[in-house]
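Deliverable D4.2, example record:
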Amino acid sequence: MESGHVPSVTCAGRQRREIVGGMTHFPQVHPQRRSPRIQLGGSILALVLLEDGKRAKAKLQTVSITGGLLRLAKSLSQGDFVEVAFQTQSGPVRGMAEMLTPVRATTDGALQPFRFVALGDDDHRALRMVVDSAADRSFQGIRSSQWTAPKSV
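Output generated by the structure prediction step:
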């Protein structure tokens, strides 16, 4: 990469194309190994910025380094490119994402997955810290309950 060049993502809006600067992480899905997921159960509010400038409120159900699952009042179109923003214990996370096929409709909206296509350094760091921290806590819980020392005879 050339010195001084900052990777960016072009976001096609209905009225104009915008360059979203500072996006340096482009999460990739690995078919042989799923990224660890954190089940949040809707406890984290998220803001979804649509291509046309409109906003949608959502509740984050699940999150990983590669994407997540949102509960929305109304599902978005598969393939829509959006910006997803939410607050974590490690700081705010804001990234470009692609909406995937809704998984089901509910009485209070729809559950719809998304995949991150670009994240800035600070956003990636905050998300990685939250996912790693939750994975560590989960492992410690398994270790303490499943791996007790055998009783001596």
